[in-house]
Write a structure and sequence with these properties.
This protein is of the alpha+beta class. The chain has three domains: 87 residues, FAD/NAD(P)-binding domain; 31 residues, no CATH class; 112 residues, 2-Layer Sandwich (Enolase-like, domain 1). The protein has nine helices and twelve strands. It is globular and about 60 Å long. It starts with a helix and ends in a 7-residue tail after the last helix.
Length: 275
């Protein structure tokens, strides 16, 4: 267990990249502006751009227009007309829709506060105005950490912050992606379980998606968990607890999981089952 905790601390000490928000626009389609990485947890949300997830969305009637820029918007006769252009001088087109949801992200608005003029380096910030994912549960944990900093022992584990996309078929991501680990030279194993093989999912007639575990190749410490499927946002909670306390995939598998439940997929997804 001490070895697992030391391994977890190594990842916990790494500060996350700064982020600005979610680069997407939704009307009757989802438009991604040049496949931007500006989502608050873009490194963990790469599954959004996977071919599998695109196929799932397509079945639901969603049209994906990747690498597309909206150049102009006009409201006329109760409709909104969007002029679009493909990246790097691509083809132009017009999309008409009833409603446009602008969700292109957000940035901290601290420039007008004059903090740089005060000259007091003891002023600290938490939440969306500092680095890390712009998520409510992230800001809440930072607030708790700030309270304890006064006593000299604040704690903030950015590695264990789940990111969730709340749509009809949810996406939940936690920890590292394979690409990050390869670039860092970390040896790892993966386990993946298709939702269609889960008894509860079959009963619910919702069998789209997958559950994926990424663990350290030597000591089995959980490095990342990525879920696409029904109730993914709820299912990621068990993985968050496991990662926060440096559990191995075997620890998760040895825990009793009631049958039939969606949470059973945590057992079937560990690398020793599907490596």
């Amino acid at each position: 267990m001490n070895e697992l905790r030391q391994f977890g601390d190594k990842y916990r000490d790494a500060a996350p990249d700064a982020a600005t928000g979610c680069a997407a626009e939704y009307h009757l389609s989802l438009l991604s502006q040049n496949d931007s990485n500006s989502h608050p947890a873009s490194a963990r949300m790469s599954s959004l751009r996977s071919k599998k997830f695109q196929r799932i969305l397509s079945k639901q009637g969603v049209t994906l227009m990747l690498n597309t820029e909206i150049t102009e918007a006009e409201k006329q006769d109760g409709k909104v007309y969007l002029k679009t252009e493909g990246a790097r001088g691509g083809q132009e087109s017009t999309v008409d829709t009833d409603v446009v949801l602008v969700a292109i992200g957000r940035v901290p608005t601290t420039s007008s506060l004059g903090l740089n003029k005060i000259g007091d380096e003891s002023i600290k910030c938490i939440g969306d105005v500092t680095f890390g994912p712009m998520l409510a549960h992230n800001a809440e944990e930072e607030g708790i950490a700030a309270e304890y900093i006064k006593t000299g022992h604040g704690h903030m584990n950015y590695h264990a912050i789940p990111s969730i996309v709340y749509i009809n078929l949810e996406v939940a991501c936690l920890g590292k992606q394979e690409q990050e680990l390869r670039e860092a030279g970390v040896k790892y194993k993966t386990g993946m379980f298709p939702v269609q093989e889960n008894s509860r999912a079959k009963t619910n007639l919702d069998t789209e998606g997958t559950v994926k575990f990424i663990t350290d190749a030597e000591i089995d410490c959980i490095l990342g968990v990525h879920i696409i499927g029904l109730n993914a946002g709820e299912m990621i909670a068990e993985a968050t607890l496991a990662l926060e306390y440096d559990a191995s995939s075997e620890d998760v598998a040895r825990k009793f999981h009631a049958h039939r439940t969606l949470s059973e997929m945590a057992v079937s997804s560990r690398p020793s089952h599907f490596g």
